[in-house]
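Schema walk-through. Below, the input block comes first and the output block second. Nothing else is stored per chain. Lengths vary across the set, and this one has 293 residues.
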Amino acid sequence: MTTAGDVVRIADGSIEVEVLPAVGARLHRLRAFGRDLLRTPDDPQRHVDDAWFWGSYPMAPWCNRAAAGAMDVAGRSIDLPVTFPDGTAIHGQVSRRAWEDHGDGTFQIAGGADGWPWTYTVEQRIAIASDQLELDLRLTNRADTPMPAGIGFHPWFRKPVRVAIAAARIHPSNVATEPDPIPVTGPFDLRRLAPMADDLDAAWADVADPPVVLEWPGIRATMRVVAPTRFIVAASPGGIDAVAVEPQTHAPDGIRRLLNGEPGGLALIAPGASLALGVRLAFEGTPGGTRET
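--- output ---
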């Protein structure tokens, strides 16, 4: 039986995180100024039993949905198993597997197989500096041919939270997307802080800097993202007390986009080369709110 294993705590000043190396090196908890900001289960074992809807986890070598089954990609044959009830292969291969804890907030995993013919490694570095959480993800191609690659983080931020996404164009559905994004309208226009409407599941493209601001009573977080390409995927399921706001290096249907030459596809990285993503969450207190202690 798979278990959640040990909890690794990383803290400095008013920011602390708890990491589960045995379950995707995911953040079980993120606390700022004494307030829990992630959807954190009472029992860490829930991350094993219901992996997709808790905490914050890294995604590699692709994010979000990919078509399950056999196909040829970049001169190799892939055959991805179904991992989600809608019949797709979702969120890559590393978010539910055990990572090695190298100390000092660094975690690593070797990947490949399970229908993915390239070998690779992923390293995640977690650091806290003053009132800022730093998350760095790096995927390295260990195979002898170019490998398609996409990486991202999938945090579930607790409600009530207001969200601003600095983007004027969007893929309004992560389930079935057109090649090009369209202008934001209605509930998809999140250029001003507001609660997300229920049941959005979309990808914002061409994001400005900073791409995301999150605000809870008494706390604001500004998210900055460093990557070759940047997309913000966000979802607000009506039945969950949290919203997902996910920085990623590619748009939805990343494998299809690569195959068809559409914008926002997975990157092709050479043997020995890496794809990196850095996320910085800077926290500050805001007037008129209360903090938990």
